[in-house]
Amino acid sequence: MAQLVRDLVTPLHPFFSPGRARLRLGVNTAHYDDAAAELEAFARPLWGLAPLGEDLDPWREGLANGTDPGHPEYWGDIADVDQRLVETAALGFALALAPDLLWDGLSGAQRDRVATWLSQALARSGVDNNWQFFPVLVSLGLRRVGVPFDEPSVEARLDRLESFALGRGWYSDGPTAQRDYYVPFAMHYYGLIYAGLSKNARAERFRARAGEFALDFRHWFAADGAAVPFGRSMTYRHAQAAFWGALAFAEVDALPWGETKGYLLRHLRWWDGRDVATRDGVLTIGYAYPQPLLAEQYNAPGSPYWAMKAFLPLALPDHHPFWTTPETPAPMPDGVVHQPEAGTAVIRSHEGRHVVVLSAAQHNTWARGGAAKYAKFAYSTVFGFSVPAGSHGLDQGAFDNTLALSDDGVHWRCCEVPESAGDLHLRWSPWDDVEIETWLIPGAADHLRVHRVASARRLFTAEAAFAVNRDTETARDSGAGYAWATSDQGLSRIEDVTESAWPTGVRREGEVVQPHPGTNVLVPRTILPTLRGEHDPGEFWLTGRVTGSPGR
């Protein structure tokens, strides 16, 4: 792990500004200004470097200059909702873990400027979600270096953060429908840092919730270490498993240490060899390869370095049981686990080699591509998910694992804002005069989708299974009521079925669609088994079974 941190950080050094306060990694197309983007690239490597405890001289120099209003590389004042506020968390964290390397070498005047600049964070409102943790982490750093701060304001933020707890260890990311990786790599991660550096009743509550959450979150990882791609911020990559290291940092032994260690290390190994960096070694925007379509509007060139959150265990001593206990495989059997707090069910199959999350309650209309990232019916460790390149035709839409509808056969809509109507039961309306109910029924290695559609207009429908790598395609077929394709990834199949518990569905015609390149998060070129139908106004039912089997 230590070497991986070095391998990720060393390529950044040629991109330092002269005063070391900024890292200029490329053109910034995020919604925030260039100074904030260059601060982001400077700050995020500290999530790994501070636990490692080495190579921090350039960051100490940059910290002094970036917080100096008289320096040309000054980061700027912090506003209420500001990317600078986000990055103060990494700086506070680093001061808390490595004050000898970042603080002790500063002059008295430099320390005063650093403290003044960071203290702005405690007076800023921030967004009402995991952002409330950023001033908390700043307070941990200020406390470690002996700088006073307004403790009641920090306690109020912590109270608000705890109000987002949903039960069984789950949080919402603020008053939203999101139950994504911001639960483990933000809400729990920051809470566990607080717990590891504090001794009070709140710290114990953070530990207890994390212990409960671990029992659910472990199901999101396949036997090879792959995590289910789901939700926004997939470009943070390794951070998907950061929770496991944070458990160790806060001394939460909810699982045997060998099991906790295994989830993190297998995930880090899963990233080995994947095309996640430029020729210079700088991390790219994307997931398993550079993928601009995946970017959210808050992704600047330095954003992917939240991946460094995965290396928190490097702060632990060599004799800690996380290091001394041998890694062990995940012990979970295949089967279905319902997670009602998230509105999901997790299907493990093929001896844990394939994990599918069925989702029926989450949505995000703010993030670019939010419908694809949250409101599809199924997300897979083997086949990933796809984001749209447009809405003109099925090839642009890349509508894997959703039901797309059109009233002209050209422009398509899918589920964007599901309304939960029960366990894996949702309602949604792509037009005011079209109402849809969908039920998702998990099976041992597949799942059933049942849709009741009531429409005042004539509709075209297209429902697809998992997207398959077409560069290694081995076979495909389609016909009345079915479509399937196979590649080195495995088999993806969708078929109309008759189920005695449901009304007879409309028979559809199978087709294998070829989406635009760069839409799927795991492979750049795919094909997509799809069922298509044409429907007169009125009520009709669609009932299909979707199968995804990993290759050997």
From TrEMBL:
Pfam families: DUF2264, DUF2264_C. It comes from the Bacteria. Residues 2-329, 346-550 form the DUF2264 domain. InterPro entries: DUF2264_C, DUF2264_N, UCP014753. This is DUF2264 domain-containing protein. It comes from Herbidospora solisilvae.
